[in-house]
Design brief:
By secondary structure, this protein is α/β, with parallel strands linked by helices. It has helices spanning about 15-20, 35-45, 55-60, 75-85, 100-110, 125-135, 165-180, 260-265, 285-295, 305-325, 330-335, and strands at about 1-5, 25-30, 50, 65-70, 90, 115-120, 145-150, 185-190, 200-210, 215-220, 225-235, 235-240, 245-250, 270-275, 330. The longest helix is centred in the last third of the chain and has 20 residues, at about 305-325. Bound molecules: nicotinamide-adenine-dinucleotide.
Length: about 350
Protein backbone atom coordinates (compact mmCIF):
# COMPACT_ATOMS: atom_id res chain seq x y z
CA UNK A 1 0.00 0.00 0.00
CA UNK A 2 1.24 3.47 -0.92
CA UNK A 3 0.62 5.91 1.92
CA UNK A 4 -0.73 9.21 0.56
CA UNK A 5 -1.41 12.63 2.07
CA UNK A 6 -2.88 15.86 0.71
CA UNK A 7 -1.78 19.35 1.77
CA UNK A 8 -4.31 22.07 0.93
CA UNK A 9 -7.86 20.75 0.57
CA UNK A 10 -9.58 23.65 -1.20
CA UNK A 11 -11.20 23.67 -4.65
CA UNK A 12 -8.80 21.15 -6.23
CA UNK A 13 -7.16 19.51 -3.19
CA UNK A 14 -10.48 17.99 -2.08
CA UNK A 15 -10.57 16.01 -5.35
CA UNK A 16 -7.08 14.65 -4.68
CA UNK A 17 -8.42 13.43 -1.32
CA UNK A 18 -11.44 11.78 -2.94
CA UNK A 19 -9.32 10.03 -5.58
CA UNK A 20 -6.58 8.77 -3.22
CA UNK A 21 -9.38 7.37 -1.10
CA UNK A 22 -10.68 5.32 -4.04
CA UNK A 23 -7.45 4.32 -5.87
CA UNK A 24 -6.35 0.69 -5.61
CA UNK A 25 -3.12 0.08 -3.69
CA UNK A 26 -3.27 3.56 -2.14
CA UNK A 27 -4.16 4.39 1.44
CA UNK A 28 -5.25 7.93 2.25
CA UNK A 29 -3.29 8.51 5.46
CA UNK A 30 -3.85 12.18 6.37
CA UNK A 31 -4.69 15.67 5.16
CA UNK A 32 -3.50 19.13 6.23
CA UNK A 33 -5.12 22.54 5.89
CA UNK A 34 -5.33 25.49 8.31
CA UNK A 35 -8.97 26.04 7.31
CA UNK A 36 -10.76 24.14 10.05
CA UNK A 37 -14.16 23.81 8.38
CA UNK A 38 -12.67 22.39 5.17
CA UNK A 39 -10.27 20.10 6.96
CA UNK A 40 -12.80 18.71 9.42
CA UNK A 41 -15.51 18.28 6.79
CA UNK A 42 -13.23 16.02 4.74
CA UNK A 43 -11.83 14.28 7.82
CA UNK A 44 -15.36 13.23 8.75
CA UNK A 45 -16.28 12.24 5.21
CA UNK A 46 -13.20 10.07 4.63
CA UNK A 47 -12.49 9.11 8.27
CA UNK A 48 -8.93 10.34 7.98
CA UNK A 49 -6.71 12.27 10.42
CA UNK A 50 -6.57 16.00 9.62
CA UNK A 51 -3.94 18.52 10.70
CA UNK A 52 -3.94 22.30 10.79
CA UNK A 53 -0.22 22.33 9.97
CA UNK A 54 1.56 20.28 7.35
CA UNK A 55 4.69 20.17 9.56
CA UNK A 56 2.70 18.43 12.27
CA UNK A 57 1.31 15.99 9.70
CA UNK A 58 4.86 15.11 8.61
CA UNK A 59 5.93 14.72 12.27
CA UNK A 60 3.12 12.35 13.13
CA UNK A 61 2.49 10.36 9.95
CA UNK A 62 4.57 8.19 7.64
CA UNK A 63 3.89 9.09 4.01
CA UNK A 64 5.22 7.80 0.68
CA UNK A 65 3.53 10.44 -1.50
CA UNK A 66 1.83 13.78 -1.05
CA UNK A 67 -0.28 16.03 -3.26
CA UNK A 68 0.38 19.72 -2.71
CA UNK A 69 -2.62 21.89 -3.59
CA UNK A 70 -1.96 25.02 -1.56
CA UNK A 71 -1.95 28.50 -3.16
CA UNK A 72 0.87 28.79 -5.73
CA UNK A 73 3.00 31.17 -3.62
CA UNK A 74 3.38 28.34 -1.07
CA UNK A 75 4.31 25.56 -3.54
CA UNK A 76 8.06 25.94 -3.01
CA UNK A 77 7.98 25.98 0.79
CA UNK A 78 5.65 23.00 1.12
CA UNK A 79 7.38 20.95 -1.61
CA UNK A 80 10.82 21.45 -0.05
CA UNK A 81 9.45 20.41 3.36
CA UNK A 82 7.99 17.21 1.86
CA UNK A 83 11.20 16.35 0.01
CA UNK A 84 13.16 16.98 3.21
CA UNK A 85 11.05 14.25 4.86
CA UNK A 86 11.70 11.84 1.99
CA UNK A 87 8.15 12.12 0.58
CA UNK A 88 7.50 12.02 -3.20
CA UNK A 89 5.60 15.07 -4.45
CA UNK A 90 2.81 15.84 -6.87
CA UNK A 91 2.52 19.62 -6.92
CA UNK A 92 -0.44 21.33 -8.56
CA UNK A 93 0.19 23.57 -11.56
CA UNK A 94 1.81 26.07 -11.92
CA UNK A 95 4.86 24.42 -10.36
CA UNK A 96 5.79 27.56 -8.39
CA UNK A 97 5.56 31.33 -8.37
CA UNK A 98 8.94 31.91 -10.06
CA UNK A 99 11.32 30.02 -12.34
CA UNK A 100 14.03 30.22 -9.68
CA UNK A 101 11.77 28.53 -7.11
CA UNK A 102 10.88 25.80 -9.61
CA UNK A 103 14.57 25.16 -10.32
CA UNK A 104 15.27 24.81 -6.60
CA UNK A 105 12.44 22.28 -6.21
CA UNK A 106 13.70 20.23 -9.17
CA UNK A 107 17.27 20.23 -7.86
CA UNK A 108 16.20 19.16 -4.38
CA UNK A 109 14.03 16.29 -5.69
CA UNK A 110 16.87 15.04 -7.88
CA UNK A 111 19.37 15.25 -5.01
CA UNK A 112 17.06 13.16 -2.80
CA UNK A 113 16.18 10.71 -5.59
CA UNK A 114 12.46 11.49 -5.16
CA UNK A 115 9.66 11.93 -7.70
CA UNK A 116 8.51 15.47 -8.42
CA UNK A 117 5.54 15.60 -10.78
CA UNK A 118 3.48 18.65 -11.76
CA UNK A 119 -0.32 18.55 -12.03
CA UNK A 120 -0.80 19.58 -15.66
CA UNK A 121 -4.04 17.66 -15.71
CA UNK A 122 -4.97 18.22 -19.38
CA UNK A 123 -2.11 15.88 -20.36
CA UNK A 124 -4.37 13.11 -19.03
CA UNK A 125 -7.45 14.11 -21.03
CA UNK A 126 -8.21 11.15 -23.36
CA UNK A 127 -8.91 13.50 -26.30
CA UNK A 128 -5.50 15.11 -25.92
CA UNK A 129 -3.74 11.75 -25.58
CA UNK A 130 -5.43 10.53 -28.77
CA UNK A 131 -4.51 13.75 -30.59
CA UNK A 132 -0.85 13.39 -29.56
CA UNK A 133 -0.86 9.80 -30.84
CA UNK A 134 -2.39 10.78 -34.19
CA UNK A 135 0.01 13.70 -34.65
CA UNK A 136 2.97 11.42 -33.92
CA UNK A 137 1.64 9.02 -36.59
CA UNK A 138 1.77 11.92 -39.07
CA UNK A 139 -2.00 12.04 -39.69
CA UNK A 140 -2.07 15.81 -40.05
CA UNK A 141 1.02 16.04 -42.25
CA UNK A 142 2.90 19.29 -41.91
CA UNK A 143 1.46 21.33 -39.01
CA UNK A 144 0.73 25.02 -39.59
CA UNK A 145 -0.99 26.43 -36.54
CA UNK A 146 -2.38 25.63 -33.10
CA UNK A 147 -5.17 27.72 -31.62
CA UNK A 148 -6.24 27.44 -27.97
CA UNK A 149 -9.43 28.90 -26.51
CA UNK A 150 -9.94 28.71 -22.75
CA UNK A 151 -12.82 30.98 -21.75
CA UNK A 152 -14.52 31.08 -18.38
CA UNK A 153 -17.03 33.03 -16.37
CA UNK A 154 -15.33 35.25 -13.79
CA UNK A 155 -14.09 33.11 -10.82
CA UNK A 156 -14.62 35.56 -7.94
CA UNK A 157 -12.76 33.26 -5.53
CA UNK A 158 -9.37 33.44 -7.32
CA UNK A 159 -7.60 36.44 -5.78
CA UNK A 160 -3.91 35.50 -5.83
CA UNK A 161 -3.09 35.20 -9.55
CA UNK A 162 -4.31 36.43 -12.93
CA UNK A 163 -5.75 34.46 -15.81
CA UNK A 164 -2.36 33.92 -17.47
CA UNK A 165 -0.93 32.13 -14.43
CA UNK A 166 -4.20 30.30 -13.76
CA UNK A 167 -5.44 29.24 -17.21
CA UNK A 168 -2.78 29.98 -19.85
CA UNK A 169 -0.39 27.65 -17.95
CA UNK A 170 -2.44 24.70 -19.24
CA UNK A 171 -2.30 25.75 -22.88
CA UNK A 172 1.37 26.74 -22.80
CA UNK A 173 2.29 23.31 -21.46
CA UNK A 174 0.04 21.57 -23.99
CA UNK A 175 1.40 23.49 -26.99
CA UNK A 176 5.00 22.71 -26.02
CA UNK A 177 4.09 19.06 -25.40
CA UNK A 178 2.15 18.59 -28.66
CA UNK A 179 4.55 20.43 -30.92
CA UNK A 180 7.74 19.10 -29.35
CA UNK A 181 9.32 22.47 -29.92
CA UNK A 182 10.34 25.47 -27.82
CA UNK A 183 9.01 29.01 -28.22
CA UNK A 184 11.09 31.46 -30.24
CA UNK A 185 9.11 34.70 -29.88
CA UNK A 186 6.04 35.81 -28.03
CA UNK A 187 3.68 38.73 -28.34
CA UNK A 188 0.82 39.15 -25.89
CA UNK A 189 -1.83 41.68 -24.98
CA UNK A 190 -3.49 41.41 -21.59
CA UNK A 191 -6.21 43.54 -20.00
CA UNK A 192 -7.67 43.86 -16.50
CA UNK A 193 -11.41 44.39 -16.87
CA UNK A 194 -13.26 42.89 -13.88
CA UNK A 195 -10.48 41.67 -11.59
CA UNK A 196 -9.31 44.27 -9.10
CA UNK A 197 -5.64 43.20 -9.11
CA UNK A 198 -4.67 41.02 -12.04
CA UNK A 199 -5.26 40.60 -15.78
CA UNK A 200 -8.41 38.70 -16.73
CA UNK A 201 -7.91 38.58 -20.51
CA UNK A 202 -5.11 37.38 -22.79
CA UNK A 203 -4.71 37.50 -26.56
CA UNK A 204 -1.32 36.10 -27.49
CA UNK A 205 0.79 34.72 -30.32
CA UNK A 206 3.76 32.39 -30.03
CA UNK A 207 6.12 31.46 -32.84
CA UNK A 208 7.75 28.12 -32.13
CA UNK A 209 11.27 27.19 -33.28
CA UNK A 210 9.84 24.65 -35.74
CA UNK A 211 7.86 27.42 -37.46
CA UNK A 212 4.41 26.57 -36.04
CA UNK A 213 2.33 29.50 -34.81
CA UNK A 214 0.37 29.23 -31.56
CA UNK A 215 -2.58 31.48 -30.79
CA UNK A 216 -3.92 31.96 -27.24
CA UNK A 217 -7.42 33.32 -26.63
CA UNK A 218 -7.95 33.10 -22.90
CA UNK A 219 -10.16 34.97 -20.44
CA UNK A 220 -12.29 35.02 -17.32
CA UNK A 221 -14.90 37.24 -18.98
CA UNK A 222 -17.06 34.89 -21.02
CA UNK A 223 -20.43 33.76 -19.64
CA UNK A 224 -19.89 30.27 -21.01
CA UNK A 225 -17.05 27.85 -20.35
CA UNK A 226 -14.98 26.89 -23.42
CA UNK A 227 -11.86 24.72 -23.45
CA UNK A 228 -10.86 23.99 -27.04
CA UNK A 229 -7.76 23.36 -29.08
CA UNK A 230 -7.59 23.43 -32.87
CA UNK A 231 -4.53 22.26 -34.73
CA UNK A 232 -4.41 22.87 -38.46
CA UNK A 233 -2.08 21.22 -40.93
CA UNK A 234 -1.66 19.99 -44.48
CA UNK A 235 -4.43 17.37 -44.29
CA UNK A 236 -7.06 19.25 -42.31
CA UNK A 237 -7.76 20.18 -38.71
CA UNK A 238 -8.06 18.37 -35.39
CA UNK A 239 -10.37 19.84 -32.76
CA UNK A 240 -10.18 18.91 -29.09
CA UNK A 241 -13.09 19.68 -26.79
CA UNK A 242 -11.47 19.20 -23.38
CA UNK A 243 -14.74 19.46 -21.45
CA UNK A 244 -16.52 16.73 -23.40
CA UNK A 245 -13.26 14.81 -23.95
CA UNK A 246 -14.06 14.70 -27.66
CA UNK A 247 -11.65 14.69 -30.59
CA UNK A 248 -12.74 15.55 -34.15
CA UNK A 249 -10.90 15.52 -37.45
CA UNK A 250 -12.02 17.89 -40.22
CA UNK A 251 -10.62 16.42 -43.42
CA UNK A 252 -9.68 18.50 -46.42
CA UNK A 253 -11.90 17.74 -49.40
CA UNK A 254 -10.63 14.89 -51.56
CA UNK A 255 -13.07 15.60 -54.42
CA UNK A 256 -11.64 17.33 -57.51
CA UNK A 257 -12.65 20.95 -57.88
CA UNK A 258 -15.35 21.08 -60.59
CA UNK A 259 -14.48 24.57 -61.79
CA UNK A 260 -11.33 24.81 -63.82
CA UNK A 261 -11.09 28.48 -63.07
CA UNK A 262 -11.23 27.79 -59.32
CA UNK A 263 -8.60 25.06 -59.62
CA UNK A 264 -6.11 27.76 -60.55
CA UNK A 265 -6.19 28.87 -56.94
CA UNK A 266 -4.37 26.70 -54.42
CA UNK A 267 -6.64 25.96 -51.51
CA UNK A 268 -8.61 23.42 -49.57
CA UNK A 269 -12.27 22.63 -49.36
CA UNK A 270 -14.48 20.95 -46.80
CA UNK A 271 -14.31 17.20 -46.51
CA UNK A 272 -15.64 14.66 -44.02
CA UNK A 273 -15.81 15.36 -40.32
CA UNK A 274 -14.87 12.46 -38.07
CA UNK A 275 -15.56 12.18 -34.38
CA UNK A 276 -13.39 9.56 -32.73
CA UNK A 277 -14.79 7.13 -30.23
CA UNK A 278 -12.86 7.47 -26.98
CA UNK A 279 -13.10 5.95 -23.53
CA UNK A 280 -13.76 8.83 -21.14
CA UNK A 281 -11.92 8.93 -17.83
CA UNK A 282 -11.49 11.43 -15.03
CA UNK A 283 -8.19 13.13 -15.98
CA UNK A 284 -7.24 13.86 -12.35
CA UNK A 285 -7.64 10.20 -11.46
CA UNK A 286 -5.41 9.20 -14.40
CA UNK A 287 -2.89 11.84 -13.30
CA UNK A 288 -2.71 10.57 -9.71
CA UNK A 289 -2.49 6.95 -10.87
CA UNK A 290 0.41 7.93 -13.17
CA UNK A 291 2.12 9.71 -10.27
CA UNK A 292 1.81 6.63 -8.04
CA UNK A 293 3.12 4.40 -10.83
CA UNK A 294 6.15 6.62 -11.51
CA UNK A 295 6.91 6.70 -7.78
CA UNK A 296 6.62 2.93 -7.32
CA UNK A 297 8.59 2.10 -10.47
CA UNK A 298 11.16 4.89 -10.04
CA UNK A 299 10.47 6.07 -13.59
CA UNK A 300 10.30 9.59 -14.96
CA UNK A 301 6.84 11.05 -14.29
CA UNK A 302 4.58 11.92 -17.22
CA UNK A 303 4.92 15.64 -16.38
CA UNK A 304 8.36 16.39 -14.95
CA UNK A 305 9.43 19.31 -12.81
CA UNK A 306 11.28 20.61 -15.86
CA UNK A 307 8.05 20.54 -17.91
CA UNK A 308 6.44 22.58 -15.15
CA UNK A 309 9.35 25.01 -15.14
CA UNK A 310 9.11 25.49 -18.93
CA UNK A 311 5.36 26.16 -18.73
CA UNK A 312 5.97 28.68 -15.95
CA UNK A 313 8.78 30.39 -17.90
CA UNK A 314 6.34 30.78 -20.82
CA UNK A 315 3.74 32.28 -18.46
CA UNK A 316 6.31 34.78 -17.21
CA UNK A 317 7.33 35.68 -20.76
CA UNK A 318 3.71 36.16 -21.88
CA UNK A 319 3.24 38.55 -18.95
CA UNK A 320 6.52 40.36 -19.71
CA UNK A 321 5.58 40.85 -23.36
CA UNK A 322 2.20 42.28 -22.37
CA UNK A 323 3.74 44.56 -19.77
CA UNK A 324 6.39 45.87 -22.16
CA UNK A 325 4.04 46.03 -25.14
CA UNK A 326 6.73 44.35 -27.21
CA UNK A 327 7.55 41.18 -29.09
CA UNK A 328 9.70 39.16 -26.74
CA UNK A 329 12.58 37.12 -28.11
CA UNK A 330 12.73 34.06 -25.91
CA UNK A 331 16.47 33.48 -26.22
CA UNK A 332 17.25 37.07 -25.17
CA UNK A 333 14.81 36.98 -22.26
CA UNK A 334 16.16 33.63 -21.02
CA UNK A 335 19.75 34.92 -21.22
CA UNK A 336 18.91 38.24 -19.54
CA UNK A 337 17.24 36.42 -16.62
CA UNK A 338 19.94 33.75 -16.25
CA UNK A 339 17.39 30.96 -16.88
CA UNK A 340 19.28 28.96 -19.52
CA UNK A 341 20.84 26.41 -17.18
CA UNK A 342 17.62 26.08 -15.15
CA UNK A 343 15.75 25.32 -18.39
CA UNK A 344 18.16 22.52 -19.15
CA UNK A 345 19.72 24.31 -22.13
CA UNK A 346 22.88 22.70 -23.43
CA UNK A 347 25.17 25.71 -23.77
N1 LIG B 1 -4.84 21.42 -12.21
C1 LIG B 1 -5.87 22.24 -12.21
O1 LIG B 1 -6.69 22.25 -13.14
C2 LIG B 1 -6.06 23.18 -11.06
C3 LIG B 1 -7.32 23.62 -10.78
C4 LIG B 1 -7.48 24.47 -9.69
C5 LIG B 1 -6.36 24.83 -8.96
N2 LIG B 1 -5.12 24.41 -9.29
C6 LIG B 1 -3.94 24.81 -8.51
O2 LIG B 1 -4.05 24.25 -7.21
C7 LIG B 1 -3.57 25.19 -6.23
C8 LIG B 1 -4.71 25.47 -5.25
O3 LIG B 1 -5.78 26.07 -5.94
P1 LIG B 1 -7.28 26.03 -5.39
O4 LIG B 1 -8.11 26.63 -6.43
O5 LIG B 1 -7.60 24.66 -4.90
O6 LIG B 1 -7.14 27.04 -4.15
P2 LIG B 1 -8.04 27.13 -2.84
O7 LIG B 1 -7.78 28.47 -2.25
O8 LIG B 1 -9.43 26.68 -3.11
O9 LIG B 1 -7.38 26.02 -1.88
C9 LIG B 1 -6.10 26.16 -1.31
C10 LIG B 1 -6.15 25.52 0.08
O10 LIG B 1 -4.83 25.57 0.64
C11 LIG B 1 -5.00 25.84 2.01
N3 LIG B 1 -3.75 26.32 2.59
C12 LIG B 1 -3.26 27.58 2.64
N4 LIG B 1 -2.09 27.60 3.30
C13 LIG B 1 -1.84 26.33 3.65
C14 LIG B 1 -0.79 25.71 4.37
N5 LIG B 1 0.25 26.40 4.84
N6 LIG B 1 -0.84 24.39 4.60
C15 LIG B 1 -1.89 23.65 4.15
N7 LIG B 1 -2.91 24.18 3.45
C16 LIG B 1 -2.88 25.50 3.21
C17 LIG B 1 -6.14 26.84 2.08
O11 LIG B 1 -6.70 26.93 3.40
C18 LIG B 1 -7.09 26.28 1.05
O12 LIG B 1 -8.02 25.37 1.62
C19 LIG B 1 -3.11 26.42 -7.02
O13 LIG B 1 -1.73 26.32 -7.26
C20 LIG B 1 -3.85 26.31 -8.34
O14 LIG B 1 -3.16 26.90 -9.42
C21 LIG B 1 -4.97 23.56 -10.31
Amino acid sequence: MIRAGVIGVGAIGRHHVRIYNQLDDVQLVAIADPDEARRMGLARLYKTPAYASFEEMFDRETLDVVSIAVPTVLHREVTLAALERGVNVLVEKPIAATVEEAAEMIKRAAARGLTLMVGHVERFNPALIELKRRLAAGELGHVFQVYARRLSPFPAYIRDVGVVMDLATHELDIMRYLLGSEAERIYAETERNLHNLYEDMLAGTIKFENGIVGVLDINWLTPTKVRELRITGERGMFLVDYLKQDLYFYENSKAPNPWDAMALFRGVGEGNVLKFQLNKVEPLEAELAAFIKATVNHTEPAVTGLDGLHALALVQMVLASAEQGQVLRVRDHVAAHGWAEMMGAKT
